[in-house]
Specification:
mainly alpha
Length: about 200
């Protein structure tokens, strides 16, 4: 699995303006699943972990997305976004009891439960602190950041999340500000202003 990334990556990453998935013809899902599984399965698990899933929940939801991708007759234009959307919904459905099936989607209760043999080697203490702060964010901010970290543009994130680009940008800005505050990070400008106030 890919590591969670450095604090700089999480907090200061500039949005990419190059689409991760250029507009293309729809291709058969089974063909896409075979070609993307090796590359996208670890990234998909990481995406779900950053969204708040536990290791086992993330694995189950990622595998469910690839299984659904193999549905006969299914054609997909944006496979990477499709996988994340379907996997996220699968994870959320794991949180809903049958008697609550008609209720609104619940707010997941994220926790840092990445209990895997390779966890200690893959996620250092600094990254663990970043992820702990990330999981404290509201779900919309966490989702906007997770899509951004996976390389999706604001437009692609908005389309996949069913919202506007303005909402994605706002949630991304709030998420970064909250992470900086939670990690005790200040920009050079803020540090200068604080120094002037003390003198």
């Amino acid at each position: 699995m890919e590591d969670a990334g450095s604090p700089e990556l999480l907090v200061d990453a500039a949005p990419d303006t190059t689409p991760l998935e250029a507009t293309a013809l729809a291709l058969p899902g089974r063909e896409l699943a075979e070609s993307l599984h090796h590359e996208q399965y670890p990234a998909l698990v990481r995406f779900l972990l950053l969204s708040g899933a536990s290791w086992s929940e993330a694995q189950d939801a990622a595998q469910d997305a690839f299984t659904k991708m193999c549905t006969p007759g299914l054609n997909i234009t944006y496979p990477k976004a499709w996988l994340r959307t379907v996997a996220w919904r699968s994870w959320i459905s794991q949180q809903i009891r049958p008697e609550e099936a008609c209720a609104d989607l619940p707010e997941p209760h994220p926790s840092l439960r990445w209990q895997t043999p390779a966890q200690a080697a893959e996620i250092g203490e600094e990254e663990r602190q970043v992820v702990t702060q990330l999981l404290k964010l509201p779900s919309k901010q966490r989702a906007a950041l997770a899509w951004n970290l996976d390389g999706f543009t604001t437009e692609e994130s908005a389309r996949a999340m069913g919202t506007t680009q303005a909402a994605v940008r706002q949630n991304l800005a709030r998420a970064r500000a909250a992470l900086k505050a939670g990690l005790g990070l200040q920009s050079d400008h803020q540090h200068e202003e604080a120094s002037k106030g003390e003198s």
